[in-house]
Design brief:
The complex is a heterodimer.
Chain A (H helix, E strand, L loop, with lengths): L11 H36 L3 H36 L1 H34 L6 H30 L4 H4 L2 H5 L4 H25 L4 H31 L3 H10 L1 H26 L7 H24 L4 E3 L3 E2 L8 H7 L1 H4 L13 H12 L12 H4 L5 H9 L1 H4 L10 H14 L11 H7 L11
Antiparallel strand pairs in A: 1-2
Chain B lengths: L16 H35 L4 H46 L1 H23 L1 H4 L3 H26 L5 H7 L11 H29 L4 H32 L2 H10 L1 H20 L4 H27 L14 H27 L9
Helix pairs in contact in B: 1-2, 1-5, 1-7, 1-11, 2-3, 2-5, 3-5, 5-7, 7-8, 7-11, 9-10, 10-11
The chains are: A mainly alpha, B mainly alpha.
Chain lengths: 452, 361
C-alpha cells in the first residue's frame, strides 16, 4: 500500500521468494553443519593417523567452498533482494527493528568468509593445529550467523512481548526463537551428512568410501534424531491458529505438513538401510536420491512454516498484504484507494469501477494472489456469482482464517467485486446458499448480471 | 509533477541519523575497495588473457592474478551487505520504491552475480583445461559484472530522483523500468568504471611484491604494467570526472566549484590525492595506495553530500524519529573489533606459515 506492488506473472512474488529461499536454506544449513563436519573429520583423520581420510576432507573442502561461498552467499543476498521487492514494508520494519542484529550477523559473515578461504587455501600451508583452529573459527561464526538470523525469522511468526514493549531483546528472544534454533542446528548437522554422502560416494578407494559413507550417514541420523524433538518444542510455542492451520484447518497446509514428515522419514529410512547398513552398495545416484529427498523436506517444511503465519507477515502486527493491524480502522474509514499511494486514481471511477477494482486487488491482494498463475484469483472466483464474491469479501477472514479481512469502503468492495466478476465472463453456476442474501440478490440479477 | 514518496515505517531509527550515515559511508568505502578490484580486475584479466596468447608475461599475469579473484568477489559481496543495510534503514522509502520500479533488472543482479562468481571460479580453477577459450569465459564474466555495475548505478540514480517515481510508475508495468541513458547517469557509470580500472592497476602493481620471490623478472614487469595501467586510467578519470561534474545540476555543480567551501575543499583534496597517487606510483607504491584510498574515501563522502543535496527538497533522514538501541549497538561495535582482530590473526597465521606442506603431513 505504501509501495508500488510488483506482480511477477504466473509465479507471483511469494513464490519467487519461496524458490530462492528454499534453495538458500538447503545450502546455508550445510554451510553451518559442514563447518562442523570439516574440523571434526579433519581431527578424526589426525587422531587415527589416516592420510586417506585427510585427503577426502581436503577434496570435500573444495566442494564446500564452491557450494557455500558462491551459491550460499549469493542466494542469501537473493532472499534479501526478493523480500525487498515483494514486501518492502515488512522488510523495512524488520530492518528498523533488527538493524544491529543484522550488523552483528554481518560481522560473523565476514569472519566466516575469511575463515573459509583461509581454511581452503591453508591446507598445504598451515600447521595442523592452526588449520584446525581456523576450521573451528569458521564453524563458530557460521553458527552464530544462523543464531542471529534465526531470531529474526522466528520473530515474524512469534513476535511475543515485542508487540507491547517494542524492545530489541523482546523481539529477538521471542517465544519460538530457541526451539527454532535447535531444529535448525539439527537440520544443519543432518544436511552436513547428506552433502558428505555426495562427496563420499565419489571416493574411488572402496575401503575409504565405505568408511566415510557410514560416517556421513551417522551425521544424517544424528541430526534427524534431534529434529522431531526440537520440532515438538517448536510447535508448542506457535500461536494456536498457526497450529490449527497445520493440523487440519487448512487441508493444503496439513498435506504439506504430512509430506514434511513423510520425506523426513524417507531420508531416515534410506540413510539407515542404505549407507549406514550397506555402505558397500552406496553410490552417487543413491546419494543424489537422498539429497533430493532432503531438499523436498526442506521445501515443504519451509512452505508450511510460511503458510502457518497467514494471515500475517509479522504475527499480530502486520497482515500479509502489509496492512498493519493498527491502521485497519483508519483505512476502513478513509478507504483503501485514498490510503494507497500507488494507484491510478484515489477515487472509485464511477464510469469504470472495474478499473478501480483492479487497483484495489493490486494493493490489497496481489502480494499473495496472481491473476492467472500461482494462487490464481481468476480460478478462485470461477463460477461465483456477484453475490457470492461480495459475500466472500465481506466475511473473508471468517470464511478463510488464513486470509486478512477485506479493508475498504462499501464502494471499493463493490468495485473489487465488479473486477473479480469480470475475470470469468462465462455463466455462473454457484449461487449463495444462504436465503437472506439470495433474496437480496434476486432483484439485481438481470440479464446484464454484473451491473450494479 | 506528482510527487509520491512512501511514508516511513512507524518504528523509530535505532540510532541517530548522523551515526547511521557515518556507517553507511564508511562501510561503502570498505565495499568500494574490493568492488573496484573485482570490476577492474576482471577487465584486466580479459585483456591479459587475450594478449597472453602471444605474450608470456600476460599469460603469467593471468595465471597468477586469476587465483586471487575468488576472495575478491567474496569480499565485494560481503562488504556490500552493510552499506546496503544502512541505505535501506535511512533511505528505504526511496530505495525500495526505485528497486520495485526496476524489479526485474534489480532481481537480475542475483542471477548475474551467481553467473559472474562461478565464471571467476571457472576461469581461475580451469585455466589449463580452458586454453584459449579462457578468454571468452573471462570476457563474458567481465561483461556480467559490467551489467551489475550498470544496474546499481541505475537504481542509485533513480533513488535520487523521487520526483520521477510516480511518472515511471504510470509509464509501464511495475518492475519493468530498465534505466535511463541520460548524460548524468552515463557519466556516473563511466566515472565508477574508470575508477575500477585504475584501482585494479594499482592492485596488480601492489600484489607483484608477493610474486617477487618466486619470479623476480615477471614481478618487476607486473609492477611496471600495473602502474602504467593505473596512470593511464587515472588520466582518463580526470576527463570522466570533469564530465560527471559538468553533468550535475547547476546548483550542485556550483557548490563544488566554490559555492560551498567544505564541498569544494573536499573535491580539491580528493583530486590532489589522486595527483599525488600518480606522482608516487613509480616510486612508492605504499604512498600511492594510501593516497588513492584517501581519494576513494573522499569521493564516497562527496557522493553522499551530492545525494543529500539532490534529495534536499524531498527527503531528510534527520526528521525520522530515533530511539537508540545502544546496548545492541555496543555489542555490534565490540564484535566488529573482535571479528576484525580474528580475521587479522588468521591472515597473520596464513601468511606467516611456511609454504611447505604441513597440515597434511
Amino acid at each position: 500500500m505504501n509501495y508500488p506492488v510488483w506482480e511477477p506473472p504466473m509465479l507471483g512474488g511469494g513464490l519467487i521468494i519461496g524458490i530462492i529461499a528454499v534453495l538458500h536454506i538447503f545450502v546455508s544449513h550445510f554451510a553451518v553443519g559442514g563447518g562442523l563436519f570439516l574440523p571434526l573429520t579433519e581431527r578424526k583423520a589426525y587422531r587415527e593417523n589416516n592420510p586417506a581420510l585427510l585427503e577426502y576432507v581436503k577434496s570435500h573442502t573444495k566442494f564446500f567452498v564452491l557450494v557455500v561461498l558462491v551459491f550460499g552467499a549469493v542466494s542469501g543476498a537473493g532472499i534479501w533482494w526478493s523480500i525487498g521487492l515483494v514486501n518492502p514494508e515488512a522488510t523495512a520494519t524488520l530492518i528498523h527493528v533488527f538493524v544491529w542484529g543484522w550488523a552483528i550477523e554481518w560481522v560473523f559473515f565476514i569472519v566466516e568468509i575469511a575463515a573459509a578461504f583461509i581454511y581452503y587455501y591453508g591446507w598445504d600451508r598451515m600447521d595442523a593445529k592452526t588449520h584446525l583452529t581456523v576450521g573451528w573459527i569458521y564453524f563458530v561464526s557460521a553458527w552464530m550467523s544462523l543464531f542471529v538470523i534465526n531470531g529474526i525469522l522466528a520473530f515474524m511468526l512469534t513476535p511475543g512481548a515485542w508487540l507491547e514493549s517494542r524492545s530489541f531483546a523482546a523481539a529477538f528472544f521471542n517465544p519460538s526463537m530457541l526451539p527454532s534454533c535447535v531444529v535448525r542446528t539439527a537440520v544443519s548437522v543432518a544436511l552436513a551428512g547428506v552433502y558428505g554422502l555426495v562427496t563420499a560416494a565419489a571416493i574411488r578407494d572402496v575401503a575409504l568410501r565405505m568408511e566415510v559413507v557410514r560416517y556421513a550417514a551417522k551425521w544424517v541420523l544424528a541430526g534427524t534424531f534431534v529434529i522431531p524433538l526440537g520440532g515438538v518444542w517448536y510447535i508448542a510455542t506457535l500461536p494456536q491458529m498457526a497450529r490449527e492451520i497445520s493440523m487440519g484447518a487448512a487441508p493444503a497446509v496439513t498435506i504439506f505438513a504430512g509430506l514434511s514428515i513423510f520425506f523426513s522419514l524417507l531420508v531416515v529410512l534410506f540413510t539407515f538401510f542404505g549407507p549406514y547398513e550397506h555402505p558397500r552398495y552406496f553410490n552417487l545416484t543413491s546419494a543424489f536420491v537422498i539429497a533430493i529427498m532432503a531438499l523436498s523436506t526442506t521445501a515443504v517444511t519451509e512452505w508450511v512454516r510460511e503458510a502457518v503465519r497467514k494471515p500475517y507477515i509479522i504475527y499480530d502486527y502486520m497482515y500479509a498484504n502489509t496492512l498493519r493491524l493498527d491502521d485497519v480502522a483508519r483505512v476502513r474509514q478513509k478507504g483503501i484507494l485514498r490510503s494507497a499511494l500507488w494507484v491510478r486514481s484515489h477515487e472509485v471511477d464511477p464510469a469504470n469501477p472495474a478499473r478501480s477494482g483492479e487497483d484495489i486487488f493490486r494493493v490489497q491482494c496481489a502480494l499473495c494472489h496472481t491473476v492467472d498463475g500461482y494462487n490464481s484469483i481468476r480460478f478462485a472466483v470461477k463460477g461465483w456469482s456477484r453475490q457470492m464474491i461480495d459475500y466472500q469479501l465481506l466475511h473473508l477472514n471468517e470464511l478463510k482464517g488464513f486470509m486478512p479481512p477485506f479493508i475498504g469502503t462499501e464502494e471499493e468492495r463493490a468495485a473489487l467485486v465488479k473486477w473479480l466478476e469480470e475475470l470469468n465472463p462465462q455463466p455462473r453456476t454457484l449461487e449463495p446458499s444462504y436465503p437472506g442474501e439470495k433474496a437480496r440478490a434476486a432483484p439485481q440479477a438481470g440479464p446484464g448480471g454484473a451491473q450494479r | 509533477m506528482n510527487l509520491v514518496i512512501p511514508g516511513p515505517v512507524p518504528v523509530p531509527l535505532p540510532a541517530p541519523a548522523w551515526l547511521l550515515q557515518l556507517l553507511l559511508v564508511f562501510t561503502f568505502i570498505l565495499h568500494l575497495l574490493p568492488m573496484n578490484l573485482l570490476m577492474g580486475g576482471a577487465a584486466m584479466l580479459a585483456v591479459s588473457s587475450y594478449v597472453g596468447r602471444n605474450n608470456p608475461h600476460h599469460r603469467e599475469l593471468t595465471r597468477r592474478a586469476s587465483r586471487l579473484m575468488p576472495p575478491v568477489v567474496a569480499f565485494s559481496i560481503t562488504l556490500g551487505v552493510a552499506p546496503l543495510l544502512f541505505l535501506q534503514l535511512l533511505y528505504g522509502q526511496l530505495f525500495y520504491t526505485s528497486s520495485v520500479l526496476m524489479a526485474w533488472a534489480w532481481l537480475a543482479v542475483i542471477l548475474l552475480l551467481m553467473l559472474g562468481y562461478y565464471g571467476i571460479y571457472w576461469f581461475s580453477m580451469q585455466q589449463e583445461e580452458l586454453g584459449t577459450r579462457g578468454f571468452w569465459v573471462i570476457l563474458v564474466t567481465a561483461i556480467i559484472f559490467l551489467h551489475i555495475m550498470m544496474i546499481f548505478v541505475q537504481n542509485m540514480s533513480l533513488l535520487e530522483r523521487p520526483q520521477d517515481f510516480y511518472s515511471e510508475f504510470m509509464a509501464r508495468s511495475v518492475g519493468a523500468y530498465l534505466g535511463s541513458l541520460d548524460a548524468l547517469t552515463l557519466a556516473r557509470f563511466f566515472h565508477m568504471l574508470v575508477a575500477s580500472f585504475a584501482v585494479a592497476g594499482l592492485g596488480v602493481a601492489l600484489v607483484s611484491g608477493v610474486w617477487k620471490g618466486e619470479a623476480p623478472e615477471f614481478a618487476a614487469w607486473a609492477r611496471r604494467y600495473g602502474v602504467k595501467w593505473f596512470l593511464a586510467w587515472t588520466g582518463v578519470q580526470f576527463l570522466a570526472g570533469i564530465w560527471f561534474l559538468l553533468e550535475q545540476p547547476t546548483g550542485i555543480r556550483a557548490r563544488f566549484l566554490g559555492g560551498d567551501r567544505l564541498a569544494t575543499a573536499l573535491l580539491a583534496l580528493a583530486i590532489a590525492l589522486a595527483v599525488l597517487a600518480m606522482l608516487a606510483a613509480s616510486r612508492s607504491l605504499a604512498a600511492s595506495c594510501f593516497a588513492i584510498v584517501g581519494t576513494i574515501s573522499l569521493m564516497a563522502v562527496i557522493r553522499h553530500l551530492v545525494r543529500l543535496e539532490r534529495l534536499r527538497s524531498y527527503f531528510d533522514a534527520h526528521t525520522l524519529p530515533v530511539e537508540g538501541q545502544w546496548v545492541v549497538f555496543g555489542i555490534f561495535a565490540v564484535l566488529l573489533v573482535a571479528g576484525l582482530a580474528t580475521v587479522g590473526w588468521m591472515l597473520y597465521k596464513f601468511f606467516r606459515a611456511a609454504s611447505a606442506p604441513t597440515a597434511s603431513a
